[in-house]
Specification:
With 243 residues, the chain is of the alpha/beta class. The protein has 2 domains: 150 residues, Rossmann fold (3-Layer(aba) Sandwich), CATH 3.40.50.300; 66 residues, no CATH class. It is 35% helix and 26% strand. The protein has a 6-stranded mixed beta sheet with strand order 6-7-8-3-9-10, with helices on both faces. Strands 2-1-4-5 form a 4-stranded antiparallel beta sheet, with helices on one face. The longest helix has 16 residues. The termini are far apart.
């Protein structure tokens, strides 16, 4: 799996991004960045605009203003397949696995647009991270538990050799034990050098593993900085994090 060397230029840079649905503007000039090898937490309540930000960055929702650059390339108007080919990979909220395909078929689809020639090696790596998936290659994905489906969704993302992995609400609907396992996994991937944009409502555990954090409220950023700085402000904790 390839990774970018840490450097001064951001891997992902979002500047004054605006987008929404029809006449409803959801993002109102959002700017953020993720550097190589970082975990950045994007926090905010339901409806704050987190998923809209993800989907705009990934080309699913068109930007109405602003700019998205990735690895120095302007992707603001790029098509989603080209964004995937660049190595910007999203594991969407709700997992979005293909329920009528097998575990193996779901994983193989992860390398459809990128890293196809290294599919076998990446499969071995995913199976090393998720031994349960290796035991269930022929099982239909829709018959798996929620935790197993989340493993599959992340494994499918890793099959594309991401330079940046966006995880959208990965802990949603999981038991406390599985949430612990999930955050340990994200920390492990980060330890391997993978850059992660972690979009979560699970504030405490997100801040435990993040290098930096942003707080989104009503489509605008209310905070950016270190987890320690965020947790040091009683007003921010009370107003935006429910702590």
């Amino acid at each position: 799996m390839t990774h970018d060397a840490p450097g001064s230029a951001p891997l992902l840079e979002v500047r004054e991004l605006r987008s929404g649905y029809g006449r409803v503007e959801v993002l109102r000039g959002v700017s953020l960045e993720v550097r190589a090898g970082e975990i950045v937490a994007l926090l905010g309540s339901n409806g704050a605009g987190k998923s809209t930000l993800n989907n705009t960055v990934c080309g699913v929702v068109p930007a109405t203003a602003g700019r998205v650059t990735f690895g120095g390339d302007d992707l603001t108007r790029a098509r989603t397949p080209d964004i995937v080919r660049a190595g910007l990979i999203q594991v969407p909220e709700g997992r979005r696995i293909f329920p009528n395909l097998t575990v193996l078929e779901n994983l193989e689809l992860g390398s459809f647009a990128r890293a196809r020639e290294r599919r076998a090696a990446n499969l071995e790596r995913v199976f090393a991270i998720f031994p349960r998936l290796a035991e269930r290659t022929k099982q239909l994905a829709g018959t798996m538990s929620g935790g197993e489906q989340q493993m599959l969704a992340i494994g499918r993302g890793l099959m594309a050799e991401p330079r940046l992995l966006i995880l959208d609400e990965p802990s949603l609907g999981l038991s406390p034990l599985l949430v612990e396992e999930l955050f340990a996994l994200i920390a492990r991937l980060h330890g391997d050098g993978l850059a992660v944009l972690l979009v979560e409502q699970n504030v405490g555990q997100s801040l435990d593993i993040a290098d930096r954090a942003y707080v989104l409220e009503n489509g605008t950023l209310r905070f950016e900085g270190t987890p320690a700085a965020l947790l040091a402000s009683p007003e921010l904790k009370r107003a935006y994090l429910g702590l």
